[in-house]
Amino acid sequence: MLLADLLRDARARLAAVGVPTPDADAELLAAHAFGMTRGELTSAALSGRSADTLPIAAFEELVGERSRRVPLQHLTGTAPFRTVELAVGPGVFVPRPETEVVAGAAIAEARRLPHPLVVDLCSGSGAIAVAVAVEVPAARVVGVELDPLALAWARRNVDALAPAVDLRAGDAVHAHAGVLADLAGAVDVVVANPPYIPDGARPVDPEVADHDPTVALYGGGADGLDVPRGVVAAAHGLLRPGGLLVMEHGDAQGASARRLVEGPDWHDVRTAEDLTGRPRALLARRGCQTDPP
Ligand SMILES: C[S@@+](CC[C@H](N)C(=O)[O-])C[C@H]1O[C@@H](n2cnc3c(N)ncnc32)[C@H](O)[C@@H]1O
Questions:
Q1: Which residues of 171-209 are buried (b: 16+ CB within 10 A; e: fewer)?
Q2: From ligand 1's centre to the CA of 183, what distance in Å?
Q3: Region 112-133: what's the mean pLDDT?
Q4: Is the beta carbon of 279 within 6 A of some atom in ligand 1?
Q5: Do residues 185 and 119 touch, judged by C-beta distance below 8 A?
Q6: DSSP secondary structure string for all residues of 37-96
Q7: Cβ contacts of residue 87 below 8 Å, gap of 6+?
Q8: Atom of ligand 1 nearest to the CA of 227
Q9: Full strand arrangement of the beta sheet holding 279-286
Q10: Mutate to test the pocket of ligand 1, among 88, 121, 122 (most ligand atoms within 8 A of CB)
Q11: Is there a contact between 10 and 26 (Cβ–Cβ < 8 Å)?
Q12: Atom 10 (ligand 1): residue with closest C-alpha?
């Protein structure tokens, strides 16, 4: 059998069950199963290579799993995020492209400073913390994650990619009075992709609904903003005057998120868009005023 025919069949199987990107998924699974880069795979297919010497059964098994909507990244074991490849699997949220933009805003701010202190709340796989540490070597980066399973993935990624990241187990909500009390008032950038789906809403994609951990999805409350509200409170206590908060939210939550930073303690409040133009992140700078006692 030709490799090109094997790929065509796999694409058709994935498309038939509604996998949104069947071409890319078939190629990435084949590259993974056959120990090739995606470029090597596509050029082998284009040059008419036979699949007969390749481990076809392993590939077919992966395509079967993907047809049952197991996330691609759980099957390959990795997720690309900005300049790094993160290890991911069951028990941890798969990093998304929109979060690369959120991390980018934190990185741009950190690069303006000589020795920035950056805190990543709700670290998950460690995606944002690792990206900041790799892209801004002068930064001191601290991450906080509550869920032990996610924390184990984050530790693995930090150890492999950015060992200087200070990863802490704990609650991001009011972290300035808890796990990050030693950093209160000293942080240059607080960045977070907290859970923010409202109670009662169910994600459409089976990959998300059935495989991302519940604690990574639901923010608490009818508006989904209980954890984000706690993240803003933590940022308020952590940031130095002039420090920047960057927090991801759902595309329908822009106005609600901006209301979380109303008042004299915050300024330069704005909503940033993701790569598809949807409003996906709150940016706000900590003012010099403090809350009345
Ligand atoms: C949407 S995921 C984001 C993970 C990662 N930052 C990313 O962008 O890929 C949210 C993460 O927040 C964690 N989390 C939820 N509530 C938390 C809390 N109160 N304190 C710390 N982490 C929390 C979840 O376990 C999950 O790993």
A1: bbbbbbeebbeebbeebbbbbbbbbbbbeeeeeeeebbe
A2: 20
A3: 98
A4: no
A5: no
A6: -HHHHHHHHHTT-BSTTS-HHHHHHHHHHHHTT--HHHHHSEEEETTEEEE--TTSPPP-
A7: 77, 78, 125, 153, 156, 157, 160
A8: 19
A9: 166-169, 140-145, 117-121, 187-192, 239-248, 279-286, 266-273
A10: 122
A11: yes
A12: 216
The rounded distance, in Å, linking the Cα atoms of 252 and 202 is: 15
Cβ of 130 closer than 6 Å to ligand 1, yes or no, is no
Model confidence at 292: pLDDT above 70: no
Nearest partner of 247 among 225, 277, 215, 276, judged by Cα: 225
Quick one: which of 105, 147, 114, 122 has its CA closest to 244? Answer: 105
What average pLDDT score do residues 143-165 get?
98
- Asked if 136 and 110 count as a contact pair (C-beta separation under 8 A), the reply is yes
**Do residues 127 and 92 lie in contact, with contact meaning Cβ atoms separated by under 8 Å?**
no
Q: What is the position in ligand 1's atom list of the atom closest to the CA of 194?
A: 10
User: How is residue 6 written in tokens?
Assistant: 């094997």
Looking at the CA of residue 147, tell me the nearest atom of ligand 1: 25
Q: Which residue has the tokens 């290579």?
A: 49
Q: How far does the centroid of ligand 1 lie from the alpha carbon of residue 34, in Å?
A: 33
Q: With bands split at pLDDT 50, 70 and 90, how would you rate the model's confidence at 289?
A: low
Antiparallel, parallel or unpaired: β 140-145 and 117-121: parallel
Q: Please tell me the pTM assigned to this model.
A: 0.95
Pocket lining: 99 vs ligand 1, CB cutoff 6 Å: yes
Report the separation in Å between the CA atom of 200 and the middle of ligand 1, taken as the mean of its atom positions: 19
d(CA 76, CA 62) in angstroms, rounded, equals: 9
Distance 144 CA to ligand 1 centre (A): 8
Q: Is 151 in the pocket of ligand 1 (CB under 6 A)?
A: no
